[in-house]
Amino acid sequence: MGVGYLPTNVTFADDTLLAVLPLRARARCLLENMKLATVGDLRRCPDEALLREPNAGERTVRELRILVPFSEDGSPTYHDLARENHILRRRVASLEGRLRQISKLAR
What we know:
The chain has a domain at 18-77. It has five helices and no strands. The chain is mainly alpha-helical.
């Protein structure tokens, strides 16, 4: 399952509590286990630290980074995974359309 349910055009202030973000249970548990409480805490936490935690995989980190991009100094950065996802979905749809056309011609 993808992460299409996440808002991509919203920026959260560093003092926003992570509990209010629309996250899946696995991501929420990861943040609780790491004792991260605010967006600023998560923003300054490197992906490698998140991935070291049990049951934290790339999908969970990607979900978190769509909402809260990493920044060493804690300042918000523009992270466009959602746009890349949208572009890839359009390309896949285009290729599927071409494949259907080829299949019709092959009959």
